[in-house]
Amino acid sequence: MKIQKAVIPAAGLAIRFLPATKTIPKEMLPIVDRPTILYSVEEIIRADIPELILIAGRDKTSVEDYFDTSYELEEILDRAGKMDLLNSIRDIRKRIKVISIRQQEALGLGHAVLCAESVIGNEPFALLLSDQIMIGQPEQPSAIAHLTKLYAETGKAVVSVFQVPTGDVSKYGIVDLKEGGTGPWNVISALEKPEPGVTASRWGLTGRYVFDKEIFPCLRAIKPDTFGEYQLTDAMTLLAERHGILATTLVGDRFDARDKLGFLQANVEMAIRHPEVGAAFQEYLRERCARAF
Ligand code: G1P
Question: pTM score > 0.90 for this model?
């Protein structure tokens, strides 16, 4: 079954980016000249998924507005003949239909996904955490396209994983896998940000998932954690037991823009590749690296 819908939760508070995120949602923080969320949206478009479901929280209207018409600005750019800029803000509307849903309480990722149930219905769907920036080669399928292809081939839920450096296990959802060969592997269970030593697995979730309707009963069955949050990883453990989940690695670079360092790295990498400023930025970097820090 072809995947028609992708979900991006955008309800988090982004405390790690204060004071910047006091009034600007983290999804709108720019990586060079594009809001962070746009990188995931382009992944979705490149996977030929026509609909995006945004799970927005309070104070996130600028994320919703980003995908809407901006009459005044578009009129001004049109009159000034700045067609490239005009198209850069107009194109996105033509390429994806956006549906916005409110998550009225901050009850965790599992709860955010459950908020999309009424719009998703019985269809399979992609889920992307937009603070994970995936940069692949333009000629390769996008990260989420890789997962939707696997779903189409197997009919099973699919998640992407990477080898977490020792010491970072408690920053990620960690999955236990039936290892062997080069994958994809069957998921045995998932654990959200385990303390060091709790699991021997180093397979971390990279924020790209494909699920079908079977995830919803699992999300309804789980209990909140000690912080009152419903964890998607708990529902994944149930789903793995009941219907199976596949885990696969992805090719390409991934930047974890949940924290300042990953966000800065993503900026540097995208600046290096940028058609307008890339060459000058590379020159600056070379000159800067030659001097002491
Ligand atoms: C979330 C997920 C976690 C995943 C991580 C990176 O964590 O809950 O399982 O490994 O994204 O994609 P959070 O953004 O809440 O720190």
Answer: yes
